[in-house]
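Can't paste images in this forum, so I'm doing it all in text. The chain is below; anyone willing to post the predicted structure tokens underneath?
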Amino acid sequence: MTYVVTTPSFSGPIELLLQLISRHDLDILDVPLNPIVDEFLAALRDDTVGVEVDELSEFLLIASILLEMKSQRLLPGRDDAEPDEEFVGWEERDVLLARLLDLRTYAAVADAFVSLFDRAGRSFPRLRGINDGFVVQPPDLLAGVTPSALALAYLRGIEEKPVAVVRLNHVTVDAVTVAETVVSLAQRLPSLGPLSFRSLTNALTSRIEIIVHFLALLELCKMGHVTLGQGQTFGDVDIVWVDGERGVDLGGVDTYEG
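Text version of the structure:
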């Protein structure tokens, strides 16, 4: 804090004023406190001067100490007490409080030990150990191990392990090609007339056959042999053969196999 006070007998920081009075270099009766407080209040009311909370609390502390020191000098009927003696009393009080806290800590630790001793007093230790004739013998880990068995185990460990092979010769996979389906539909659709995709694939049992038939129809539509239409969303797909020829060029047909 750098708050400067101006009095008839002193001009400077308020902390220095407190130090001079504490060292008896300046008499507290020669320092009027009213102008000091008025100047500080005027600084608080001034919007251009900002006062931090720390500065305000420090000024209040120093001003209260000065006010207490001056009141003790002015009030009659009381023994004069030196400021140093008062500070010594405060230090002794702090020492007593610190000792009290230490004593409370030791008392809490003592209570904890009493609780542990009480809990241990309800337990009974084992008084007898293992019988004198009882001997613990660990098992022989090399019992029954011969050099030949050890050599065979080593050979089994270093031999090359066969690679696992998954054979699929017993699995039958039905291959359905788009090219073959395009040829089949080109031969069937002219004679069937307009029909829906649902009726065309109604006799099919596997999903892959239905997918291949749909791809084949897309190929025929791309080549201009059929037209595909759908009356409504998610409705049946209508198929109409528009080319009179049944021969289809398979040069541009996808060779996908399902």
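The beta strands are 4-6, 11-13, 195-196, 226-230, 237-241. The first helix runs from residue 14 to 22.
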